[in-house]
Structures
1.
Amino acid sequence: MGYARFIVGKTVSYVLALFGAVSILYVGIYPTMQKVIEASANEAASEFQRNLVKGHSNLTLGQIQAAVATFKAAYLSAFGFNQPFPVKFALQMGNLFRFNFGSAFFLQAPNGSKQVIALIVAYLPNTILLFTTGTLLVVAAGAIVGLLSARSAGGKLDRSIPMIAVITSSVPTWWIGFVLIAYFAYTLNILPSGGISAVPPPPGIIERFGDLLYHMTLPLLSFFLVNVGGFAYVIRSLAVSTMGEDFVTTARARGMSENRVLFKHVLRTASPSIATQSILAVAGSFGGAITTEVVFRWPGLGLLTYTAITENDLPVIVGSTFILTVILFLGLYAGEMAYGLLDPRIKTGD
Amino acid sequence: MASKSSGRSYLRELMKSRSGVIGLGLLIILLAISAYVVVALPQSEAYKWENPAAWQGNPVSAPPFWVNYFGVDAPSTVDLPLTGWTTSVSGGIYTYTAASSFVWSHAVTPSDFEVVPVFNGTAYEISIAWTKPDGTTIDIIKSSPVSTANYDLTTPSIQQSIIPYIQSQTGVYMNSVTSRQQLEALFDKGGPHLLNNSVEQGTYGITVQLIAGAPQAISSASKVSLVGDSYGYMGTDTVGRPIDLGVLAGLPWALEIGIISSLGAVMAGVLWGGLAGFFGGWRDRLMQWGTLVILALPALPFLIALSYSISLTLLTEALIIAALSWPFYAIIARSVTLSIRSQTYIEADRAMGISSARSFLTHILPRLTPVTIAYTALGVSGGIILGQTLAFLGIQPGNVITWGGILNDALTFDASVHGWWWWVLFPGIMIVVASVPFVLVGFALDRIVAPRVSAK
Amino acid sequence: MTPLLEVRGLKIYFASPRGDVKAAEDVDFHLDKGEIVGLAGESGSGKTTLALGIMRLIYRPGRIAGGEVRFEGTDILALPEKDYREKYRWSKMAMVFQGSMNGFTPVFTVGAQIQEVLRMHGREDNDVAVRKLLEMVDLDQSIASRYPHELSGGQKQRAFIAMALALNPELLVADEPTTALDVITQANIMNLLKRLRKEMGVSILLITHDLALLSEAVDRLYIMYAGRMVEEGPSESLFGKPKHPYTQGLLASTPTLQTKQIRGIPGFMPDLANQLEMCSFSSRCPFVKDICRTERPGLRKADGGEQVACWLY
């Protein structure tokens, strides 16, 4: 019963937090949003006018203008303009949560749609593909290295981890990407300098898959190099502090080999924290996606956002920022749930 | 125990750890250079950076001068000063003449050829007699108006002067010539294959003549410039801006953003987390929830979106970064506070009737100070990188030189493709170099602080 | 008859910036089969370190710097780690830790952990086996499916004793088994230990600072001070007529219902990193003589079947 209470309590808390965060986001981008809505109203009004003129050729100019003005006013009202703030807030926040971001100013999705949500849906999967894979690699390698170095606490491996973590986490991913591209793509010519696939894409599933991996190599390498050291350090710290607990001494006393103590008891005890860190790593990686995708011209949400920045395509920026907030939120929530799932002290209602 | 937390004893312990010493040393060097930059490079440098005209005369996209030591032939710019002008007057026409010569021992030509007369009025004509080592002379003429300016190989009348020479050698009349072809013409061995020949090494002569209708005062600052192929310690970009200058100028701002944002974030976070841990109960839960709300905001996207609503200055950018980063420190401070709280003298205080505020200030806050300092150092690194990342995306206060901004240009002008490695390497290395000392010091401090905090 | 456990000249040092801290120095003691032997001393005297040393659980920066630990005649310190771990640790000699400690791994059920111990050593690991062990310590079978944090202090300690007995060891080292438990639970655990000795024939080394606890449980006990044994003897004679001034001080400081004023022992334990050639207790001893400050006394026979390390005898 305690577990159900835990889940419900945490979920409510998190949903409220999402609402709070998006409210802050709303306040921050308020002027931008109003501009976006106004532009969208203008566009809708012009379309209305075109249709009006097409369908009813017998109206006077005055009648047309009046009709358009009424339409535009109603449209703006529906989006909260000229309304008291609470109403405006409710309407505009509601639209955000329904992923109703309007149309982009300039950009277009591959299928031709100008709806911002269509753009996001078209490009988000590429970001998920790249960054989830990258984080999985970082988590796997980092966890193994971290655990092994905790086992040999004070040994050579263990002493070099902090140093490596220090230097690599001071390197921006996008810059390392830059350097790797310059070397592997332009000097050695063995890896592509960017993009997600060759142009034109090769025929056949196997070739396409191979081409995809070929294009993912450098971005994954950059991401991996920068993040693995830090993650290994975090896991190492977690493992070391777990190993300092009483039950580790008793586990050894019970006749367990070091391997069993570490990889069964310590690992399992630290697993809630490790799982949370891993999920946070995935969720957090999306935030940095923008710069990495720019450098590698990877067609994902990040590159979309960057292009929107350079083109001043405000609706896309608003939509993309909201989606990234939701993704981070889902990651935080999943991390919390994972912790509760893996730690029996919570499951049995402590 | 309390006496041990004095600043001096922490400093002493810091000096004992190798990474702490290295970090501290690098830090002092960074701050010293930064102070020098602030004092020696005036604000006008930043404006100059944005103005391409200020950099005329520098070779563009040139590697650093020291590549010459590694077997790359990249001549530096050679300026031939024109002094000793002789005057001759005849029938209202004033003719000024100066001559110079130089030895060219490179196997490559310069990257550009500039004539820079410095005088106050206007003249009808400036002509240059260019003598090659083999004795041939080329006349290069620019007709009026001639005034103080940099005349280079893109000037049409100069191009027109070189075309006949080319024709005389190769027999081919070219309608237009590129700068490269002009340089080959000026420097290659003569003959029918003039433009494909190798560079002729030897003594070259230049005689410059200025013809005006009124007396002129010609400054000895006049010169002919053989713009080189290498420049400075870190090369130049496509506009001729020296990267070493940009890197240096970017240091104070980078450090400022990092330090201010970190200080703000850590102080706010530690206070928030410390109070949450101290209060406990519903207040703690509420503050934890507040931490979650801010934590849920993805830093980079939010900062980007925000930049459209407000204009960025150093202070506003640092404060916003701080406002998004404090949750991390709040979480740490709260758990530290909880472990402090588990020791009973807080209860004793309450039993004695000492107010909560006093209890917090005397017991909790001093014990949070070491953690605060350690994490402030670590946080600077994050602030520096975030600031540069934003600059890389084009989001920065105006009139500020940033490494991220320089790298943004490098990306725009495809520096990787062209192999202009110096443009990409040095600004990026600086980001690392600026961050690493703070992380070293922070780590060393953290190791000193951590065992004390969890003293069982 | 060969003692079950015989320790000779054991030295356990911890490396520190000030030099080696001698947590145990020249320790001799033995335990015969079927005995309950006590080891008493204040905090920091080295008793827990000694217990860990016997079980070869001393890790960096500590090390066993010398001496022998003979179990049934074999010097277990000389064995390779793998041999010791497979043949002796937990199967021949098991340990019960302080009552306040988290002896169990928090993420597995108590039953699963007992099963693990059985399985690791090739014994029958089914539910019946676990139930029998729990019964032995007066615990219900439902405990097996609980997590450690769901149990009370007393239940946890019993369950741990069950796990310690799982492989039917000959020796049980009990280090402060009742510390931080309430008096009723304390009494229960002590009765349990006594019963186990009777029913299972397990010999027990009972380590504690609580003299009252020892007085009614042990046949024989050692007193440890500053890493060395200072007195040893049968329960009656040692408690009845303590010989070493430290023992006397310890007993005097234990309050009874008649005590009007609690007396402590003035002074502090000497620095274990800096041991001089003198009696470690001399700075606090009410009977100190000149020789105490210049020469260190060893354990020597005295009356009542005891040994004392003191120049008074």
2.
Amino acid sequence: METTLRQTWAFLFRGYHLTRRYIGWVVVFNFYALVTSATVALIGVAAGNYQLTLTLVVGALLWNYLSWLYQEISMSIAYERWEGTLEYTFMAPVSRLVHLLGVSLYSLINSIITSLIVLAGLVLFTNLNLRGANLPGVMVVLAVSTLAFIGLGLIAAVFPVMSAERGAEATHIFQGSLLLLSGVYYPIEVLPKWMQPLSAISPATYTLSACRKLFGVGMAGSTPERLAGAPLSSVSHELLVLALMGAVLMPFGLWVFVKVEAWAKRAGKLKRTG
Amino acid sequence: MAQPAMQIRNLRKCFRKRKGFRKWSELWALDDVSFSVAEGETYGLLGPNGSGKSSLIRILSTLLIADSGEVHMRGYALPKDQEQVRRIIGRVSVDAAFYKKLSARENLLYTALLYGQKARDAEKRAMEILDQLGMENSKFSTPLEEMSRGMQQKISIARALVVNPPLLLLDEPTTGLDPKSRRDVQTFLEKLREREGTTILLTTHDMAEAERLCARIGFLAHGKLVAEGTAAELKRKANAQTLDDAFIKLTGEELSDEELVALEV
């Protein structure tokens, strides 16, 4: 147990020191996340429609959290390939479960910090009043959807194991598709009819749907002064689907990763690239 | 007879590359290679670029799976017992692969933690190793990107040894080093074997290095182990004055200009 804790700590230790050394880039990425979210939210402010503003704020905030989490996990292997350290991580006596758990934990901490920065910026730019929103409920939904997104990240992390450059490209294409399909800034009904069924396979669709209800978006009782956030029981369907997705995607992601790693060792694909 | 520390039998590895629709080319990196290394022995593998040295080291490091053959590391079979093998090996590759922005201390502590070691113990051991390699303590907190290739390679050796493995796999550890750094590394390896009894598999282009460090040497060419023995036996076998000449006569190959230049750096 002590060994496992030290091994998990290794990934947090590495992440912390890399963040410290690349602090300039970390500031730039957070600034960019804040600015892109604020510019989207200001569309609602310009329209003078607080419901639209709230829709965009919730979309921007949740997408920042979920996409950052997904990206950090899915790109963790690509980063190691670029640094040239992947072989050394793979030949260490650390189980893939502990390895990916450590990476996911660090990504989670990073995502929470970025989301808090974005939230602070959005409140500042939009003067939005969140009184009446069911914020504890939002936390529950985010916690459950985190598992599903970690699972998606693990599945996408296999692409850079297969091919350093093509793999990193594939993870971004996958991330872009989730943004398009999940109704981050618009209801999925505005998507082309043939595309709408695809949104059902994205965990972000359920996260956004649940969180919008909990914030009080579109609720009859919501006013600019006080939102009418729905109770947690009203999003039980979304919570159930997200929990099922997490329960399936996490072990499936780990299983796929182990299989692809074995294939990469047979094909000689783990050599340093980049 | 005592069990060898490393035993490799009839090892074969072929890489296939797509050359068009349903067309593949094959490259045999290792073709029926067999040898063993005794506990506490330093065994050298000599061969030009592309002879299969790095593929062999990767197989022993659990990073590549052979097509056929047997590998036993202190009795553990690969790839079946890869978890156990990972606990008893350390590896130094020709390229010092690190997080270049991190300091030597941060890189070494990360490795120690990955192996489940206590950070304080690992830090003490790393300092001792770097001291023996002739590196100043003040460099411990310097980012790797600010270090010379020689210093980076010394950190790489410290990384392999910080977890105190009984088996050490060294893939051209002195290639590209200046003469002083090369001598520091070679002296350190000699002392390490004497003091700790570490079993070392060393691949190199450098005949003098192989002659100095290795009890036995194998010549690898085109994935085949074409000759094996002590330096004196190999010279006698080839009726040659130097190990260089013995290598050329027994393998029918010369080191490339690029490799000879690398030796002169």
